[in-house]
Amino acid sequence: MSYFVDENGYYGKFGGAFIPEMLYPNVEELRVNYLKIMESDSFQKEFKSLLKDYVGRPTPLYFAKRLSDKYNTKIYLKREDLCHTGAHKVNNTIGQILMAKRLGKKRIIAETGAGQHGVATATVCALMGMECIVYMGEIDIARQAPNVARMKMLGATVIPALSGSKTLKDATNEAIRDWINNPVDTHYIIGSVVGPHPYPDMVARFQSIISEEIKKQLTEKEGKENPDYVIACVGGGSNAAGAFYHYLAEENVGLIAVEAAGLGIDSGESAATSVLGNEGIIHGSKTLLMQTKDGQITEPYSISAGLDYPGVGPLHAHLSESKRAEFISVTDDEAMKAGIELCEFEGIIPAIESSHALAVFNTKKFKKTDVVVLNLSGRGDKDLNTYINYFKL
Ligand SMILES: *Cc1c(COP(=O)(O)O)cnc(C)c1O
Q1: Average pLDDT, whole number, for the chain?
Q2: What is the span of the domain harbouring residue 280?
């Protein structure tokens, strides 16, 4: 069984490129060129140098002693929260802006929900002096004001999506429409391992720096490359794809993907796609998604904006279906409790997305000798208001 993309863009039966014909030339240009560009020496040199000096990589692999004592196992945190801009997303946007430059593009578009991917995209556009247009649902613009301000400070134009539910999927539709109308000079930076082939594979490769570093760092600390488990939260699935990537074929490493159960799996307010979803097509790829009987996408819910997505990338659909990864769902309450616990035990305020991954220690028992690496995808600054309201701080 392979967990890597095949030549047709599939992971098992998931993936592919289900796109309108007008988009075909853009996606095809990327598909034909992405591997050649990524594997070239000049690309690797520039990518690695920016990851080091701009993003601040390698991020530490930190042994969390007090948390380990509490759960009676060995817990390491991969500190993506220490990346410039506060999360792993910038690994991907750095990679894609370098790709766009080499494809001769002058203009960048992106979609954003909560604004995290919009900020990471605006950041690299400022870095490279490229025009940046971010589509964002009108409702999201209203509820994510600080991120809208960040994007504007970084020089991006934020265009409200006014159709449908005025949230992420509508912003995505607007971005696709823009790309169809500007096929020659524009690159579309997608924010996770979602979208038509080759995006899921390209984004996973950019994020795979996470597990590349874990292997080296664990060798220094434990004398072996492989932990017993790797844990990561899954929205679209990019931080998990990066943390799992170099372990996908190592069947003795347990992979644990954590989804947001929201108010509970059966509450109607959830984002646990592996449990509630079934096969369908969203944003150009065949994957698992939450939908009604007649194929309308169900509005997802999670307290965490980054996990509030009605699908998962095709790699994760395949990992779920093949049972290569164990999928665990965590409610808002369980995540918030685990988030505060990390503050109190380790002095680290996690993003609420990452708090979902941390909550696994309360639902699954590990052996004392197990080495468990948890990908701490981001820091909690952006979530301060949610923490304040939830705990009445
Ligand atoms: C966006 C985000 C996520 C979810 O996205 P993935 O593509 O699943 O990684 C997780 N954590 C943080 C901090 C995020 O900003």
Answers
A1: 97
A2: 56-87+209-391
